[in-house]
């Protein structure tokens, strides 16, 4: 199972490297803290990739669709993504895929606050559908 965790981490890092190399302007980087895989450190790249590493595991998401609400008095944007996750520290070392559905509020162009729910498909041993959630705040450089 440790090999699966290493493989997911390597794929995550390679996707960030690919994203950074394909951007013509300088990449936008944000770091923060949140609750995703337990208390987690958050890294965001180009407002499109989010990786979370916490005391319970790690996750990586690609936010492929973003939009604004039709009501002008709603100051948040919405997003849909796809990603993967793995847990460590328990006996099972679960891993799987997920579909984050969330909202993002930007404060003064630098601070982002987000919340999401994500249906998860646990692929360890037998396939199991679960529902997870995450919230966090990040600062963009």
Notes on the protein architecture:
Strands 1, 2, 3, 4, 5, 6, 7, 8 and 9 form a 9-stranded antiparallel β-sheet that branches. The longest helix has 21 residues, at 2-22. Helix content is 15%, strand content 57%. It is globular and about 45 Å long. The protein has one helix at residues 2-22, and strands at 29-36, 38-45, 49-54, 57-68, 77-87, 95-98, 101-107, 111-122, 128-140. It is built from 1 helix and 9 strands; from the N terminus they run αβββββββββ. The protein has one domain (2-140): Porin, CATH 2.40.160. A hairpin with a 2-residue loop joins strand 3 and strand 4. The chain is mainly β. This is Outer membrane protein beta-barrel domain-containing protein. It comes from Vibrio spartinae.
Produce the secondary structure layout.
Layout: H1 2-22, E1 29-36, E2 38-45, E3 49-54, E4 57-68, E5 77-87, E6 95-98, E7 101-107, E8 111-122, E9 128-140
Antiparallel strand pairs: 1-2, 1-9, 2-3, 3-4, 4-5, 5-6, 5-7, 6-8, 7-8, 8-9
Protein name: Outer membrane protein beta-barrel domain-containing protein
Signal peptide: 1-19
Keywords: Signal
